[in-house]
Recover the amino acids of this structure.
C-alpha cells in the first residue's frame, strides 16, 4: 500500500482499548503489588487498616503449609482433568473426522457443556450426585446399595470435581482437535497409504506428528484455565472435605474474603500470577511460531 | 475430511459400530446432567424425593416461585426471591460490557490488523491479558471499589468485566478483520472515502458476521461470569450465577428452584452453540489452528 498512513488514526483507534486495559488490568495489578507489602485487614466493618510490612506476607508463604497443600491439589486436579480431557477429546475428534451422519448436530451437542456457565455445571453435578436428592444415588439405592457420598468422601471428592471439569471441558479439546484434524494436509496421508502403512502406523507417525503444535497449544490453554479453576470447586465441594479439594484460587479467596486478610491474599495471588505468566509465555511463543 | 477418504476403504462394519457406540455414550454423558436438571425444574417437590415416574407431578411452580409469582391459596406470595432483578442485572451488565468491548475492540482490532500497530508482539500481549487469573484482579478491584463506594453496583461489574472482555474482543476481531480482503477498502478510498469511512462503510459490513459472533461470545462470557460477580456484588446487584449459588446456602436444598434458575441461566448459551458452531473454532481457539 502506497497510501500515507495517518499516524493519528493508527494510534487513535487502538488507544481507547489500551487505556481501558491500563486502567482495569495494569493499574489494579500494580495496586495489588502495593497491597501485598501491607497488612490490610478488613475485619472491622467499615474500617480499613493498612500497615506497611515489607516482605512479611511473602515470608508467610514459606511457612504456610496450606500453600503447599493447595498447590499440590491444584496440580492433581490440573493433571488429572487435562489428561482425561485431551484423550477423550482426541478420540471423539478422530471419530467425527472420519465422517459420521448428522455431523453438524452431533458436533453441536458435544460442544454444549463448554458454553454452559461453570457455576451451572457445578450445580448440575452437585444435584446429580446429591446424597439424598441425586438421581445417581436414587439408582444406586434402587439396586440395593448404600448411598455414595461423592462430594464428602475423601477418596471421591477430587475425582468428582475432576469428572465435572471433564464434562465441561472435554468439548473444548474436542473442538481444537477436530479443527486441527480438518486442517491437516492431504498428501502425507496418501503417501503413507501408498507405502502400505497400517491405520495405527498412520495415526502414530503421520496424524500425531502433524497435530503436535495444535496439541501442545491445546494442552497449555487448558492447563492455564484449569489452574484458575474456582467456580466448580466452590459449587461442588467448597474445598472440602477438609482441604482435599482446596485448590490455590480457592485458598486465596478464603484468605481474602473469609479472613479478610487482603494484603496476604494479594501476595499469594502474585505467586499464582507468576505460574500462569510462565505458562502463558510458553504458549504465546508456540502461537507465534505458527 | 482429509482422513475420511483413505480410511473409508479399510473401515470395517465393526469399527464403524464401535465408533457409533462411543459417540452415543458421549452424547448421553453430555446430555444426562442437563436433561435431569431441566426435568427437576418442572416437577413438584412433595415428601420424599423419588425419581419414580409414577410420583411425578409436572409444574411451572418452581419458575413462578423463583420470579416471585407463586401464591398460596390465601393469596400470599410463597417466597420472595429477587430473581427477576438478578435477571435484569445480568442482562444490563452483560449488555453494557458487550457494547464497550465490541466498540473498543473493533477499533483496536482494525488498527492491529490494517496498520500492524505494535506488530505481533502487541497482539499477543493483548491476548495474554485474557489469560490472567481473575482472582489476582478481583482482590485489588474489590479494595478499589470499596474505597470508591461502588461495591454492589452494576458499575463494579462493568469495570471488572473489561479485564477479560476487551482483550478477548480485540484479539478475536483482529483475526476476523485479517480475513477481510483490503481490496474493497482500497478501492473505496480511491473513490474518495477517508480511512475511517472505509472502516465503517466497507470493513464493518463485510466482517459483520464475525462481529456479531464476537458480541455473542463476549455477552456469554459476562453472562456466565461468577468470581467477580460473587466478590463484588451481593443481593441488589447480584447476577444470575450468584443468585443461583446463593439459593443453596440460604434456603436449604431448594432443588426445584435451583434447577429452574440454572435452566434460565443456560438456555441462551445452548441456543448460541447451535447458531454459532462455525464461529466457535475461530472465536475460542485463539489462532491455535490455522485453517
Amino acid at each position: 500500500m502506497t497510501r500515507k498512513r495517518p499516524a493519528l488514526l493508527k494510534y487513535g483507534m487502538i488507544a481507547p482499548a489500551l487505556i481501558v486495559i491500563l486502567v482495569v488490568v495494569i493499574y489494579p495489578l500494580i495496586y495489588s503489588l502495593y497491597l501485598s507489602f501491607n497488612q490490610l485487614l478488613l475485619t472491622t466493618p467499615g474500617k480499613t487498616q493498612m500497615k506497611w510490612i515489607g516482605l512479611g506476607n511473602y515470608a508467610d508463604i514459606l511457612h504456610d503449609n496450606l500453600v503447599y497443600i493447595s498447590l499440590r491439589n491444584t496440580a492433581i486436579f490440573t493433571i488429572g482433568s487435562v489428561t482425561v480431557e485431551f484423550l477423550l477429546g482426541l478420540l471423539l475428534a478422530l471419530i467425527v473426522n472420519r465422517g459420521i451422519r448428522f455431523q453438524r448436530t452431533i458436533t453441536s451437542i458435544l460442544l454444549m457443556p463448554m458454553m454452559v456457565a461453570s457455576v451451572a455445571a457445578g450445580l448440575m453435578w452437585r444435584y446429580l450426585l446429591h446424597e439424598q436428592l441425586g438421581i445417581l444415588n436414587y439408582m444406586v439405592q434402587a439396586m440395593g446399595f448404600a448411598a455414595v457420598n461423592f462430594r464428602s468422601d475423601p477418596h471421591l471428592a477430587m475425582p468428582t470435581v475432576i469428572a465435572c471439569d471433564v464434562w465441561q471441558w472435554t468439548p473444548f479439546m474436542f473442538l481444537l482437535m477436530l479443527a486441527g484434524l480438518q486442517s491437516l494436509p492431504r498428501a502425507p496421508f496418501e503417501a503413507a497409504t501408498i507405502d502400505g502403512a497400517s491405520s495405527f502406523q498412520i495415526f502414530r507417525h503421520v496424524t500425531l506428528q502433524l497435530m503436535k503444535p495444535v496439541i501442545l497449544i491445546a494442552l497449555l490453554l487448558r492447563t492455564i484455565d484449569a489452574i484458575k479453576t474456582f467456580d466448580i470447586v466452590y459449587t461442588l465441594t467448597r474445598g472440602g472435605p477438609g482441604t482435599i479439594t482446596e485448590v490455590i484460587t480457592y485458598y486465596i479467596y478464603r484468605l481474602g474474603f473469609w479472613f479478610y486478610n487482603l494484603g496476604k491474599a494479594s501476595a499469594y495471588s502474585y505467586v499464582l500470577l507468576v505460574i500462569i505468566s510462565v505458562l502463558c509465555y510458553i504458549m504465546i511463543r508456540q502461537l507465534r511460531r505458527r | 475430511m482429509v482422513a475420511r477418504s483413505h480410511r473409508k476403504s479399510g473401515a470395517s462394519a465393526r469399527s464403524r459400530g464401535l465408533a457409533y457406540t462411543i459417540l452415543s455414550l458421549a452424547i448421553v454423558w453430555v446430555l444426562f446432567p442437563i436433561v435431569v436438571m431441566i426435568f427437576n425444574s418442572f416437577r413438584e417437590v412433595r415428601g420424599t424425593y423419588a425419581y419414580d415416574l409414577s410420583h411425578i407431578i409436572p409444574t411451572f411452580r418452581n419458575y413462578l416461585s423463583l420470579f416471585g409469582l407463586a401464591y398460596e391459596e390465601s393469596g400470599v406470595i410463597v417466597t420472595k426471591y429477587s430473581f427477576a432483578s438478578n435477571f435484569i442485572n445480568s442482562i444490563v451488565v452483560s449488555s453494557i460490557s458487550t457494547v464497550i468491548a465490541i466498540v473498543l475492540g473493533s477499533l483496536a482490532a482494525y488498527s492491529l490488523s490494517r496498520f500492524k500497530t505494535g506488530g505481533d508482539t502487541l497482539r499477543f500481549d493483548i491476548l495474554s491479558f485474557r489469560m490472567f487469573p481473575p482472582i489476582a484482579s478481583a482482590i485489588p478491584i474489590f479494595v478499589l471499589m470499596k474505597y470508591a463506594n461502588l461495591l454492589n453496583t452494576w458499575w463494579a461489574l462493568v469495570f471488572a468485566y473489561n479485564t477479560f472482555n476487551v482483550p478477548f474482543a480485540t484479539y478475536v476481531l483482529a483475526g476476523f478483520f485479517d480475513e477481510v480482503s483490503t481490496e474493497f477498502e482500497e478501492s473505496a478510498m480511491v473513490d474518495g472515502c477517508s480511512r475511517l469511512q472505509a472502516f465503517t462503510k466497507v470493513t464493518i459490513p463485510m466482517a459483520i458476521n464475525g462481529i456479531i459472533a464476537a458480541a455473542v461470545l463476549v455477552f456469554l462470557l459476562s453472562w456466565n461470569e461468577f468470581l467477580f460477580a460473587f466478590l463484588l456484588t451481593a443481593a441488589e446487584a447480584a447476577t444470575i450465577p450468584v443468585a443461583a449459588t446463593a439459593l443453596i446456602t440460604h434456603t436449604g436444598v431448594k432443588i426445584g428452584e435451583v434447577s429452574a434458575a440454572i435452566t434460565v441461566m443456560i438456555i441462551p448459551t445452548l441456543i448460541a452453540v447451535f447458531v454459532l458452531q462455525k464461529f466457535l473454532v475461530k472465536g475460542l481457539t485463539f489462532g491455535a489452528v490455522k485453517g
Summary: Chain B has 13 helices and no strands.
